[in-house]
Write a structure and sequence with these properties.
2 copies of one chain form a homodimer.
Chain A lengths: L4 E8 L3 H21 L1 E9 L16 E2 L2 H6 L5 E4 L7 H10 L4 E3 L2 H18 L3 E2 L11 H7 L5 E7 L2 H13 L3 H10 L8 H4 L2 H15 L9 E2 L7 H9 L2 E12 L2 E12 L11 E8 L3 E8 L3 H21 L20 E11 L4 H11 L4 E7 L4 E8 L2 E2 H13 L3 E4 L3 E3 L4
Parallel strand pairs in A: 1-2, 1-4, 2-3, 4-5, 5-6, 8-10, 10-18
Antiparallel strand pairs in A: 7-9, 7-11, 9-10, 11-12, 13-15, 13-16, 13-17, 13-18, 14-15
Chain lengths: ~425, ~425
């Protein structure tokens, strides 16, 4: 293809994703050139430390530890940022955008915290800022949300967007492991980091939820705005009881529009077994989208990993290059401020377990507390006999605030020994 | 939005999808204008018969029975074709493209038979021809395949792309209904047509498979090139035996690249229960994509219905309008000729049932036949006792040609009373 347009790419960061991207371009560059007329050439690669052994090949002299020089290099057409983290990624992307270079990034942390600033810089310069890889890795999600569904009105998006926690929950479900055992296995397999906090406490998913809210509903949501509850308190008993009741337990990121406000949260949830999200196993991700016209959609695939993520980066890079050649810009999100409804005002059905002392009148006392707070019990089961018994119930939809007060009062009952972690039920009404 | 660009749309056909599109534009047109700066105005609507009562509103004087006048109207910017069928849709789309009007179509039959001619006309005029709605209705599939995965190398695509047959198979699986009973229910619910041949014999799926092959692998495949086998011979016994062996039976459209050739076929298949396609119930569609870098992906949703399909059409329409404003064209498929590998040369594992007379040496005779054709039995079970017994076996991967010869010879054995419909097993090796 001698008539292909050469696009000179500057790469910032070259860890897993960067190395996989270089390999993908080496493998598929000819096919891409034949199909699109675009020849991608990675001419500069900025890394943290020079002189290390590297599992990939770059053009002679391309490696540098001066990332600023890469974004300022006037011969570079497009910048790809896969270094991660807030700084210096933010400053480098802003410099690239100010220099009118389109940017492709996989940086969810940065987008979830400084998204509006970056989108504005891109709009000011009239260049692309694409970020398909920042949410759900290799799964095409951002482009379908922004383009394919542009004419629809979305109601709610529920996603399994953290592979580590889905792997842990799958092991707990299928092998009866405890949280700690499953976490240890995830760490041994490299799915979980040594400090697993960001994954297991839902913080990683919260950052992705913020980006989904921005793209799907056009509102400004930052990671810190997202209520996040993790899975470390989930027990194998919770999981087996959920299965008996017809549910799987999944860590969900949920974003929905309610009366002009936006609700966005991350927490474990009981998902009906017949729901497509319940069948998402191992470290896979899936995002379930409810649109007014399109109905229910789901996007499923690998949410992490070098090659899946690099595939998404490369799709964006080809798009940015094609736009550059045609003097076009993809529509950017222009998120506006909206009230983020606090978790206290949201409504869910709840699954609650109580360890109680088996005395006459226990159920009456429990029912008295729930009734006092306007919480209505949908179904109930009493397990075990003798001294210690367990009450398990699922409520009708109730406000979080009322549920919290109910649980506080239940803890104060003398007949109640212990209140388990309550779980929200999805699709119960 | 006084500064929105008005895009004048001509609509060809106004059945379910067309009416839903008009309604969607009425509902969401303001939001689309606010977000994209594009005001969509449907100014002409060509219908077959004037003067009928219609469940939608159009601008006064917009209705016409002269479709040619619509595509020739110089004031119309974009043409949407949702009339279906080969002619006059083909001639109208060609006329619109020749007049340099972008076209959005949902017409799978036409694309699967005259795709290359249409793509060439669009390329000649330098305008868009978009068709997201032609495969899998509301599910974003064509755009992700063409754009998000543009840098990856796809291996295989397997889709449940016909809702009617998936509904029938779901009923047979979950309620033990016969094919005829489930078909009657599908007809009563409006999921199946009075003449269900195109759905149940796999012809509808074959047309979609041809389009998927064109988009995903860039090769010219027409509906008639696709080997198609339907579900009318599937029995409830097949389904319960499949479940015992750990499989669900699904009608799959399968497209794969093999050594530079393309294989494309539609047939019922046994899918492992843990595979995401096995959990796709009722009339939902899902397309499973295997890419070298991205790994496994699945796209799930409503494959038919007025509003889901209209949602996909509207996404394309907004894209075409945005491109028109920016003087840009989406990359068109430029399918090239490739050898389509005949079904005889493909390899699968097979599930086979034999009704046999229970005499000594039956198994020996059966094993002799399979061995003679180089077909190796992976697992086998003998059911029933006494006069009539049933042998059920699953083979290792074998060539279709060898399997066919094996079945012919098995039918000729005196100890064999009947050979059931063989089923291909997906993901067995």
């Amino acid at each position: 293809m001698t008539d292909a347009t050469t696009i000179r790419v500057g790469l910032l960061g070259c860890g897993n994703v960067g190395a996989a991207l270089l390999q993908l371009i080496a493998e598929n560059g000819d096919a891409v050139a034949a199909r699109t007329g675009l020849r991608l050439e990675v001419v500069r690669v900025a890394v943290h430390t020079l002189g290390k052994a590297r599992p990939y090949e770059v053009a002679p002299g391309a490696l540098t530890d001066d990332a600023e020089a890469v974004v300022r290099d006037p011969s570079i057409d497009v910048v790809v940022e896969v270094m991660g983290g807030r700084e210096p990624a933010r400053a480098l992307i802003l410099a690239a955008l100010d220099a009118k270079k389109p940017v492709v990034t996989a940086n969810k942390e940065l987008l979830a915290n400084a998204g509006p600033e970056l989108f504005e810089a891109a709009a000011r310069s009239g260049v692309d800022l694409l970020f398909e890889a920042a949410v759900a890795g290799g799964i095409p999600l951002i482009r379908p949300l922004r383009e394919s569904l542009a004419g629809d009105r979305l109601r709610r998006i529920m996603g399994i967007v953290n592979g580590t926690t889905n792997f842990i929950l799958t092991r707990m479900t299928e092998k009866g492991q405890s949280f700690q055992e499953a976490l240890a296995e995830a760490q041994a397999l490299g799915y979980a980091e040594r400090d697993p906090t960001a994954d297991v406490e839902g913080l990683d998913a919260a950052a992705k939820a913020a980006i989904i809210a921005t793209v799907a509903f056009g509102v400004q949501v930052a990671a810190g705005d997202v209520y996040a509850e993790g899975i470390s308190a989930i027990t194998p008993e919770d999981i087996s009881m959920a299965q008996r009741l017809g549910y799987a337990i999944k860590l969900l990121a949920i974003v929905e529009a309610i009366d002009g406000e936006i609700a966005v949260r991350v927490h474990p949830a009981m998902v009906p077994l017949a729901h497509p999200l319940a069948a998402v196993r191992e470290s896979f991700n899936a995002v379930f989208v409810e649109g007014e016209a399109v109905g229910d959609l789901m996007f499923y695939g690998r949410g992490a990993g070098g090659r899946p993520t690099a595939s998404a980066v490369l799709g964006d890079l080809i798009d940015a290059a094609a736009n550059l050649r045609q003097g076009r810009v993809a529509g950017l999100p222009r998120p506006v401020a909206a009230r983020i409804r606090p978790i206290d005002e949201l409504r869910s059905a709840f699954y609650v377990t109580l360890d109680v002392f088996d005395r006459p009148g226990v159920l009456e006392q429990v029912a008295g507390v729930t009734a006092r707070h306007g919480v209505s019990i949908w179904k109930m089961e009493q397990l075990g006999l003798g001294e210690e018994a367990r009450l398990v119930f699922v409520t009708h939809t109730a406000e979080e605030r009322a549920m919290r007060a109910t649980l506080d009062d239940l803890r104060d009952l003398e007949v109640v020994d212990r209140v388990g972690t309550p779980l929200r039920v999805v699709g119960a009404d």
